[in-house]
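Example 3.
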Amino acid sequence: MLANPESTRYVPTTDSETPVLDVRDLTAGYGGARVIRNATMAVAPGEVVAVIGKNGMGKSTLLKAIVNVVKPWSGVVHLNGQQMTGLKTYRVARAGITFVPQEKAIFGELTVEENVRLALPRRAEIDTAMASVEALFPKLSGRRNQKAGTLSGGEQKMLLLARALVTRPRLLIIDEITEGLQPSVRVVLREALEKERASNGTSIVLVEQDLDFAFRIADRYAVMKLGDLGEFASTAKADWRAVAEAHLAV
Amino acid sequence: MNAGLVLDGLTTGGLFFIVTLGLLIVFGMMKLINFAHGAFLALGAYTCVLATSHGLPVWLPILLAPVVTGVVAAVVEPIVLRRLYGRPMDTLLATWGLNMIIIQLITLYFGRGTQPVKTVDLGAVDVFGTTYSLYRLLFIPVAVALGLSVALVLNKTRLGLVGRAVIMDENLAQISGINNTVVRFATFVFGSALAGLAGALLTPIASVDPNIGVPWLFAAFMISLLVGISPAALGVACVLLGMLQVLLASLWDPTIATLAVPVAVVLILRFFPQGFVKGARVS
Amino acid sequence: MSTQSRWSTARGLWTRTGGTNTRSLTAYLVPAAVLLATAPALDIYTKMILTVSFIYGLTAVSIDLLWGYAGVLSYAHGALFGIGAYAVAITATSRGNGVLSTVVLGGAIGIVVACLVALAVGGLSFHSRADWLYVGVVSFAVPFIFERLVLAGGEVTGSSSGLSAFMQSVFKPNQWYLLTGIILLLVLSGATVLVRSDTGTLFKAIRENEIRCTYLGIRVNRVKGVLFTATAALTAFAGALLASSQNVVAPDLGGIMAATMMVIWVALGGRGTLVGPVIAAVVIDYVTAIVGAEFPFIWQLGLGVAFLLVVLYLPGGLMSLLRTPMAILSRRFRPAESDDRHADLVIRASDSETPPLNGDEPPVLTLRGVTCRFGSFTAVSEINLEAGAGEVVSIVGPNGAGKSTLMRCISNGTYRTAGSVHVGGQPIKQLSPARVAALGVSQKFQHASVFGALTVGECLRIAQARTVRPSLWRRDRVLTLPRSAVRVIEATGLSALLSERAEDLSHGQKQALELAMVMATDPKVVLLDEPTAGLSHEERTVLGDVFRLIASTEGKLVILVEHDLDFVREISSRILVLHQGQLLLDGSVEDVANSRLVQEIYTGTFDEQELADARES
């Protein structure tokens, strides 16, 4: 099944000379073990790219190295032309790269509203923010004062994404958000991302195992194998099942 | 059980609370036990001594003490503690070294002996059929006020929200754009200022010598292991332990009574490593 | 090996074993001689001060053994010192005469009481649920309690004034000086022998990586408890010496300040060097006594500052400053001989035969309904499994499927919430990892977990510690390891790296070392958590062959968690597919490769209904 040709795919604009994200030769690992090697990629404004591959190949590490949650051993990262490599994580977040980690990354003991409030810059209006959250994810309406830890798995992921979107990031970096979710929930998430991209021109880097999800929304994809990031290819004419067989199968 | 004893227990509990609150906040936020807390307490007491010896009315140094202590803490945190982030054992040793240094500096300047302090004579009031010192009674409302303000800030302000986030999960807070370093710094200064305040409050009723902070540090240290970052839980623990200490002092021996808190805490923790409150201990 | 070389090897072994200890002992003859020679030149006053300094040197040995070598920080020893001192003082006072027999009696009482206290503190501190903070808290409480008890002791303890003039002259100051000096040197040499032995290596291993020790079957808490009690006896003995020689005791002898000073001496002198702390203790105490009258506070302040600086900038203490010049010196004097510590180890394979497999064996590992819940989250649910010797079982599944948790449930009896696990027919119930290891389970962790500061040879020696008790005074030069361990060592090239420190190895070599350590315990069940993570292709191939060999030839059950599906396909005899904590498929490589459901799980396109149906079947 081909990716939907009608989808809001990346259309190059004339003033998009500077890529939103420019990664060159990024190498990183844990302790003595090198996990990713010389990863290079560029993402244009408004573009969505997907990084796919089997588990343990370094996809998460790549994302973490970009936002400096894992300190890169070498390489450079630029956001809109600005040097980002090795910048403290909170600075990266404030500069416009929002990272959505794979783990349950919400504050379980805080309420839904508090979680959203934390993500907002200081003087922003919480009510407007909550309204847009509830518009994107109707399932979260009326839950303002519910403790985030008591939400269902799918709802927690929605909250996670909502928190990320509320910051109006230039670049969203998402690590396996669909993991463990029902197909219906995945559709909701995907639609939210597409809406976001269409209205705000947010660029997105996704790591995904669900290729159907990834190919529906991404413009380009690349395969990560044993720490090496492959060439990016367009998703326009790709058959995700064939790609899955080639790269993910047992 | 006479009213005087109960009041003693309550006021002791109130005093425990004021002393421990600062230590607890630092423990919860920064995951470190600040052994210099006792020295900060002494700093607060001596600020009071110095101020009153210059003829200032007693209530002024009570406001001055936290400021002085806060300044010292503000200098110490970046120089000593920040380097040792992630090394809990070394942090323990370093704060202990700091404790020694500050106390020795105080001793150098003031001498080893007890300082004379102009006692606050607020008189006594009749309460529950017994006459009791008004000054001591004030510990209760002060403790309650402090506890309430901290709880309010934690739960109703953005500052408190940020603080709670850092307590719950530092990494996630960083990812969410919170500058942990600043939060830790502010917490340490605030917690130490509270210690200074406690020291100043103590001066009229305790003998002031350089080691004034030691038994309090010890009790506070023990109690904070037992309780989470909840001021309410701290309040309960302080009242209970305060009553226990007072009872033992009257039934047995005052010196033995000061053992009540550490022994009780050690035993409780052995069988309930999580302390009183669920999720209290952050290991 | 020819007769000739076997003979010279044997002789070499003998020399080396005897050699270490002889050299340590002779090293201490020099200061002993100095002590004796300079004695006439010093005045009585100096000798009296030095007597006390030497006694405190003994406490430094205790604290360093515990803290520098085994990683246990104890403030309690301050109080234990006080107990020894007060025991003598109280006995002498109550008997009314301070003669030698009274001193000995008092000392004995003090040592016994100190050991009892140490056992109590140890019981409170060294158990699986206690973290280091709790241990610190408890040890901190002891001097505090001691001081309070003494102050409340009234006539018996002399309260705040202490006790004095209870001794009749047992020895003259001259004799005390020589006696304490010699005792210090004897204790120091004994401690040196201990830390250079395999037991010393064991302490260091515990300090480096306690969890690894536990999973190797070592009863860490027991070791700590024994060391704690032994040093308690030594410290109380020192206290007894103090009371007998100084004829006065006061509460602060065993209080927090005293305990702090002991820690400071060790920190300043250099943790884990023995000599450093002793020198620091003697020098600092001597200077304190001299300066103490004149500038007590400045001196204390200086010590506090020095302590803080050492903690911040020089964790190795002053000894670390001396390390470089000392290394140059020792190379000057002993150029030809290598450092005994890194002398070549000989590895031998054990001769025991593995009984041949005939397919009738009972299952080596049985899991029934194993479930693991964390609060409301179920990580692993209702897993049933039977696996036997000779199998290579791979556990696969997407992230978060519960693979590592399942493995933990097998190696740690306290981990699971429900269900049963049997190893070779024996239930593991709620046993701790060390006890489960004794049943024949050994786990290799995901991030290479070895003992960084130890050499490869030492790591292997410790890996065997459960079955081959480490000697208190010797280092084994010949390691007899199970054949499977030797296979790993030879196949991965570790045999050439025996003298290398583990932390200097490459990542792949560390993984290999940990594997060798795991095999050194000769387990029935080998659990490997992502053993090929971070390895190169060649390294993976080598390890893959080793795993297969371990299972087939040595009859082990090998269970691995792996992400690399090609690797899994190559070496497994059986694959378990986990998804969201449940066992989805348990079959051969073909079964799993051909399963469409598995494909869909990996690409995340499964249908909930199909999944439920599959689970029912």
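The first strand of chain A starts at residue 21 and ends at 30. Confidence is low (pLDDT under 50) at residues 1-14 of chain A.
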